[in-house]
Amino acid sequence: MTALSVPPVDAPDPPATARLLAEAAGRIDAPDVVLAISRGGVRTVHTGGSAEVGPVARERLHYELGSASKPFAGLLLARLVAQGRVRYEDRAADLLAPGLPVHPVVRRITLRHLLTHTSGLPGLPADFYPQAVPRWSTDPYGNYPADRVVRAFLRARPRHRPGTRWHYSNFAVSVLGHTLAAATGTPWEVLLHQQVLAPLGLEATLLRPGPDSTDATGHRRDGTPLPALDTGGFTAAGALRSTPLDLLTFLEAHVGGAEPRDPTLAAALAEVTRPVLRRGWRHAHTHTLTWFQHPTPYGPVLFHAGATLGQQAFLGFRPGTGLAVVATATRRVHRADTFVATAYGLLTETR
Q1: Pairing relationship of beta strands 42-48 and 63-64 according to DSSP bridges
Q2: Helices H, strands E: what count in the chain?
């Protein structure tokens, strides 16, 4: 295992933080583990795992983010709103298929509903499962392309009116991605790069596998390696791959890093940290446009986790404190898994 300090290079590597990360990594069983903390721009990164280190250092490999891709989609929407190109209350069906008859409930679904999981749509389309189940552990999404996601949305019959219930939905966030592409006349990959990745300097964040030997290899629980995930038409909900160093850069932009030159990007970064809904018993669960929010003794924390067939990721930060936490691991999630709890502890218990 290694611990290293990365830019700013003239900042010392706090030994206490290095020890904290080393101890935390020891609680995670995976072929590859990366835990990283940024405190006011001073970064400490710990790498480890049971696999041999390949030609590319672990902290520079591209890891599958799964649902931790969603904060990128949320920031993109917030920036497009700040630019006046779309509104949160725009109806998705009107942008995707103007004039096409759809169910009245579908007609009322807005961009805000899609992003905040309040659209009334299920987690995945009903017709997704018959084609996915035979390939559930290898390639459940690859044969469900973008046009099929859009058709499933336009013919949907949601059980609940938009805005009345919270239900986590990869389907909804995927529809959001296709809707923004239609509204701007720009493919999702290009749109995300123009509006989020390039402005933040995220050169190692990709929507598809990178060059040879630069992608982390996911593993089943028994250690069997898995091929790279193909998300099919669910790109906006879970297709991103990124390095822990790029992910720290993304989070640092949310916690008081250098002020973006473009005021619409600054406005979007502020917007995605504001609470927009509360749910659950006594409204105990708080959400921003795209982050889960919990209280801690050190102030609120915002976070999002993600998992693919053989990898996991965790992103979190404390607004106004300069603290950001990134964690990645290359083993499929399981019931006894400690990955999320360990990363969450770094975020909520670190002074």
Answers
A1: unpaired
A2: 13, 11
